[in-house]
């Protein structure tokens, strides 16, 4: 049963499965990478590499999305692995951590902060383009 809950927590928020099994350092690192990846690390990468063209910006976004996929895959595999050997479980810590990271992930992608870290305007609107459903007119 520990494996199932570790897997479930890790699928909800990367790092929460590690917190559930008692590996706090790894869980916090994964949660921070997940929550702050696109809001802090991505604009800094765009600034460090002095990305100017739209094509190059989209390529960096594409690479960032693959990094997110790898991060989530690693978090799930690691949580299941740690679930095999977990002596104690920490359900409330994992639940509160998942709640905090998911709220942080939703609220950290701010246009002003992203533009300031990136160093140029217009990139945030590319990242946050909203697709309208076919029923919206």
Any chance you could write out the topology, listing elements then pairs?
Blueprint: H1 2-12, H2 16-21, H3 24-48, H4 54-85, H5 91-108, H6 111-118, H7 123-127
Helix pairs in contact: 1-4, 3-4, 3-5, 3-6
Number of DSSP E strands: 0
Q: Helices and strands: which structural class?
A: mainly alpha
Enumerate how many helices there are, as a single number. 7
Coarse morphology: elongated
Query: Which strand-content bin applies to the residues?
Result: under 5%
Low-pLDDT residue spans: none
Cα(first) to Cα(last) distance is 47 Å
The largest sheet, given as strand count, sense and whether it forms a barrel, is: none
Helix content range: over 70%
Query: Average pLDDT value?
Result: 85
| Cα Rg | 17 Å
Strand and helix order: HHHHHHH
Folded structure, characterized:
The protein is mainly alpha-helical and 137 residues long. Helix content is 77%, strand content 0%. The chain contains 7 helices and no strands. It has helices spanning 2-12, 16-21, 24-48, 54-85, 91-108, 111-118, 123-127. Helix 1 (2-12) packs antiparallel against helix 4 and helix 3 (24-48) packs across helix 6 (111-118). The longest helix is centred in the middle third of the chain and has 32 residues, at 54-85.
């Amino acid at each position: 049963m520990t494996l199932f809950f570790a897997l479930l927590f890790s699928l909800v928020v990367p790092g929460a499965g590690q917190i559930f099994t008692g590996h706090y350092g790894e869980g916090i690192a994964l949660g921070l990478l997940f929550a702050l990846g696109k809001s802090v690390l991505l604009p800094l990468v765009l600034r460090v590499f002095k990305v100017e063209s739209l094509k190059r910006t989209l390529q960096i976004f594409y690479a960032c999305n693959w990094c997110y996929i790898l991060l989530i895959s690693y978090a799930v595999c690691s949580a299941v692995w740690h679930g095999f050997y977990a002596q104690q479980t920490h359900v409330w810590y994992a639940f509160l951590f998942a709640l905090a990271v998911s709220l942080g992930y939703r609220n950290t992608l701010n246009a002003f902060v992203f533009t300031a870290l990136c160093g140029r305007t217009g990139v945030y609107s590319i990242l946050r383009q909203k697709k309208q459903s076919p029923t919206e007119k």
